[in-house]
Automatic annotation (TrEMBL):
<dbReference type="InterPro" id="IPR012337">
    <property type="entry name" value="RNaseH-like_sf"/>
</dbReference>
<dbReference type="GO" id="GO:0003676">
    <property type="term" value="F:nucleic acid binding"/>
</dbReference>
<dbReference type="InterPro" id="IPR036397">
    <property type="entry name" value="RNaseH_sf"/>
</dbReference>
<protein>
    <recommendedName>
        <fullName>DUF5641 domain-containing protein</fullName>
    </recommendedName>
</protein>
<dbReference type="Pfam" id="PF18701">
    <property type="entry name" value="DUF5641"/>
</dbReference>
<feature type="domain" description="DUF5641">
    <location>
        <begin position="349"/>
        <end position="443"/>
    </location>
</feature>
<dbReference type="InterPro" id="IPR040676">
    <property type="entry name" value="DUF5641"/>
</dbReference>
């Protein structure tokens, strides 16, 4: 019926002069629909093609195929050009709104005030609009995660593997009790704080850093190193040695350095070196130091300079200075707080050592442990070995064709249900060993 309808439609919509006929002597398909003797199959058109393939261009007969009128032929689908206008609603995502803020605390407090304002007009009191700082911070991070890692979050909730193109696939992410995307990592059994083991995952392209151009050495860091013993004077009887220190100025923007030599660790030596530095490099907007003993009273000395002309009147001995305006007191330096001996030095050294140890462990937890989180291999799950599976045990001392054939006797799963080692029995002598699955080659499953 289908062929009949199709033929009748062709005859209705076309003319016989538009048809092309292939004669039987030029049709290789006849060899498949009609039987051909085996002795003639080698010379048939089924293997060699029609004779017209071997003819030259001179022997071919030109066949004229008139062009079809696409506007009148109903069998040809017309090409219609259509233009449309799409309306797209402009929505400003949260990740674009945070570009207006340069300080994280200001961003969180702004959203916190907005939530407090929305809570006053809330009709449905069942909705949770927590206004604490931590809740607002989690709200902002959760929205950023939903916009950037929407595919990963859907895969985790539906218990599906993450796509191979995911940026966080090697981090083994999971969703915690409050719906936040956290890093699973490889140190989940470490005896440290939960937030340190499983930190929140935030995309790196959402960190906006504001920078302004400034001349070199506008912001500097200062430190002192030394001393060195140098020869200051030579005499007939020998030579005189002295100690020298170096004051290091580092530009916090360009990391350029400037070194000034000082004769002693005193306030006067430091001020002279600072004045020499300013004379060469220009004024300074910010100074960061290690708060050494020779830097502590610099602020008081600078603020002790007079801001008005000094009077010679003996009845007005006080000189107005910034220190007097700040403290509302006459400028006077405190007396020494006491005398110190060797045991005080030992106490200070012990406190310094303990402080350095605390800094070491803080950096260990915050920086080094995080480098162990990323999983470099074994990101795809594979079936566990089962009892009765036949495996080969790897041996570096023998060739592969001489590896021992064993049978899995007792798989030993871990806390997550994954089998990482198993008891195997040697098929040759019946000996039993415990081997990791990384040293096994699976031959046959049960």
């Amino acid at each position: 019926m289908y062929v009949t309808n199709r033929v009748s439609r062709i005859r209705k919509l076309s003319k016989p002069n538009q048809w092309s006929y292939i004669p039987t002597e030029l049709n290789p398909a006849d060899a498949a629909t009609r039987s051909v003797p085996p002795d003639k199959l080698q010379d048939s058109m089924w293997l060699n093609g029609p004779p017209t393939l071997n003819e030259t261009s001179k022997d071919l007969v030109d066949t004229d195929f008139p062009l079809l009128n696409t506007e009148q032929d109903k069998e040809i689908r017309p090409n219609v050009q259509v233009m449309k206008t799409g309306l797209q609603e402009s929505t400003l995502a949260l990740t674009h709104r945070i570009e207006r803020f340069s300080v994280w605390k200001i961003l969180v407090n702004t959203f916190r005030r907005l939530k407090i304002f929305a809570k006053t007009f809330q009709k449905d009191k069942t909705d949770d609009l927590s206004t604490s700082y931590n809740a607002t911070e989690n709200f902002v991070i959760s929205n950023i995660q939903s916009e950037v890692f929407s595919i990963e979050i859907n895969c985790i909730r539906n218990k599906l593997p993450l796509p191979k193109t995911s940026r966080i696939r090697n981090l083994n992410p999971f969703i915690d009790d409050i719906g936040m995307l956290r890093l699973g990592g490889r140190i989940s059994k470490a005896d440290i704080d939960f937030k340190l083991k499983h930190p929140l995952i935030i995309p790196g392209n959402n960190c906006y850093i504001s920078a302004s151009q400034s001349p070199p050495f506008s912001s500097v860091g200062i430190d002192t190193f030394g001393p060195w013993s140098i020869v200051t004077r030579k005499t007939r009887g020998g030579q005189a040695n002295s100690k020298r220190w170096a004051l290091l100025f580092t530009c916090l923007s360009t990391r350029a350095i400037h070194i000034e030599v000082i004769e002693e660790l005193s306030l006067s030596s430091f001020i002279n070196a600072l004045r020499r530095f300013i004379a060469l490099r220009g004024s300074i907007k910010e100074i960061r130091s290690d708060r050494g003993a020779n830097f502590v009273e610099v602020c008081a000395i600078v603020n002790g300079r007079p801001i008005v002309s000094v009077s010679s009147d003996p009845e007005s001995p006080l000189i107005l200075s910034p220190a007097m305006l700040l403290t509302q007191k006459a400028g006077c330096y405190p007396a020494p707080i006491g005398t110190f001996d060797t045991k005080d030095l030992y106490k200070a050294q012990w406190k310094r050592v303990q402080h350095l140890a605390d800094i070491f462990w803080q950096r260990w937890n915050k920086k080094y442990l995080q480098t162990l989180q990323t999983r470099r291999k074994w990101t795809d799950s594979s079936p566990n070995v089962k009892q009765g599976d036949i495996v080969l045990i790897k041996d570096k001392n023998v060739s592969r064709n001489a590896w021992t054939t064993c049978i899995i006797v007792n798989p030993l799963p871990g806390h997550d249900g994954r089998v990482r080692k198993a008891e195997v029995r040697v098929a040759r002598n019946g000996s039993t060993y415990t081997r990791p699955i990384s040293e096994m080659v699976l031959l046959l499953r049960v």
